User: What shape does this take?
Amino acid sequence: MTGFIIAELAAGGGRLGLCPMPGRDGRYADDLAAILDWRPSLVLTMATGPELAAHGALGLSGDLAARGIGWRHLPVADFAADSAALREGWAGAATEALRHLSAGRGVLAHCMGGCGRSGMAVLRLMVEAGEAPDAALARLKSVRPCAVETEAQRRWAADR
Assistant: This one.
């Protein structure tokens, strides 16, 4: 196994996790194994298609589907907090994620580094699950200090 880390916290009756992109350090198979060991029922990919391609992770959706794990692709450029895909797909992805959480399951978000974009998605889910934004951000940063890298990302997550 590698040093691939999944930061985890309880939310909405289940588990939320965030991590770097599998394959970021050239060990896609090991990173995928770590994700599978964490047992998510849904994975939110916030990284872009070119980022996935550059790190050998284009097969992630198929690898997850083969194991019965849901996948939603909501690509956002690095350090950004908005995209057409996010605007169009967030409501459905959030509804699905909150359903998984309320059933006691795990929802995992990743971007490139497992900080900004994945952090904003996790924070938004925490807020949509009923947590106060500032308290949720403090709790998130206690397990992943780099989570939510920009003010725009914080606003997107906190200002429902």
